[in-house]
Design a protein that fits this description.
alpha/beta, eight-stranded parallel β-barrel, 41% helix, oxidoreductase, Luciferase-like_sf, LLM class flavin-dependent oxidoreductase, F420-G6PD/mer
Length: 313
């Protein structure tokens, strides 16, 4: 994905749906995303199963997990699953990865100590990349070990080196992980100002590690609602996010979840562009007509956005 232009993706909310995905593929949308938990409090799907549906029910767009809670999965199993999906889809899969922790019982149920989720994630990233290099490989780590094994995808379509691993989160450990180990950065619930700070942190951490960030993907998962009626859009966000994230006041929701008319949302997203975002995953913050939100975002918000002069010149 090129950094010299602004692109949109869409979150398939609440669940992947064949007709919804077909309609989105007709729009100027370049990716579709879904995440998932193992033991969520409501009846929602799991990340790899949802990613499988996205892969099967689309033909053109990039498909991604946003996000997959990596410490809950054995990386050898996951490496095989993602390799097969990437191969079957012709190299369209990306994995947004996070550490989770909001549902402690998920970790207890699979025997993963909550306090280990960070280092397990770091080592799991190493295991995935080792297996995706091809050939017979070995690994001896704190959490995972194997000797002289080879992963083979079901078809030759997996990209060399495997699918991109896009790090998600909001806190400094996630930023450091993105800088050292990730192929991109996909935070959520960040204001434009906070996103700009994250860019500074990741850039500085990468420099410390001697890493060149050429090709690194600067993304943002943005809850929003776009309507002809701006008041309805703002009511969408309050109803969708207000209770879920601790009854945040409207002014805070406005900073992290743009809502309004296409003109109003474009003005807010432009602030993210100026902060460094190049690919938005638009997550409709509404319980009704999510396709309508994505359609307006892709056809009337995206054309209003522009790269900063220093980048576009």
């Amino acid at each position: 994905m090129k950094a010299d232009r602004i692109t949109f993706g869409a979150a398939a909310i609440p669940e992947p749906d064949r007709d919804w995905l077909a309609a989105v593929e007709e729009l100027p949308v370049e990716s579709v995303w879904q995440g998932g938990h193992l033991l969520p409090p409501s009846a929602t799907g799991e990340a790899v199963a949802r990613l499988s549906l996205l892969t099967a029910w689309t033909e053109r767009v990039r498909v991604g997990a946003a996000v997959l809670l990596l410490p809950l999965y054995h990386p050898v199993v996951l490496a095989k699953q993602l390799a097969d999906l990437d191969a079957r889809s012709g190299g369209r899969v990306s994995a947004g990865i996070g550490v989770g922790g909001e549902f402690r019982h998920e970790f207890e149920a699979v025997g993963v100590p909550l306090a280990e989720r960070g280092p397990r994630t770091d080592e799991a990233i190493e295991v995935l990349r080792t297996l995706w290099r091809g050939g017979a490989v070995s690994h001896a780590g704190k959490f995972f070990s194997f000797h002289d094994i080879e992963l083979r995808a079901v078809a030759p379509g997996m990209r060399p080196g495997g699918p991109p691993l896009i790090v998600s989160g909001r806190k400094p450990p996630a930023m450091r992980r993105a800088a050292r180990l990730g192929d991109g950065w996909l935070p959520y619930l960040l204001s434009p100002r906070a996103y700009a700070r994250s860019v500074e942190t990741i850039t500085a951490e990468a420099s410390k590690a001697g890493r060149n960030l050429d090709g690194f993907e600067w993304m943002a998962y943005v809850y929003c609602s776009v309507r002809r009626d701006g008041d309805r859009a703002r009511e969408d966000v309050r109803g969708f996010l207000g209770g879920a994230y601790g009854d945040k006041p409207p002014e805070m929701l406005d900073r992290i979840a743009p809502a309004g008319t296409p003109e109003q949302v474009a003005a807010r997203l432009q602030e993210y562009v100026d902060a460094g975002v190049r690919h938005f995953v638009i997550s409709p913050a509404t319980h009704e007509d999510t396709l309508g939100v994505v359609r307006l975002a892709a056809t009337e918000v995206l054309p209003r956005l522009s790269l900063p002069a220093a980048v576009s010149s």
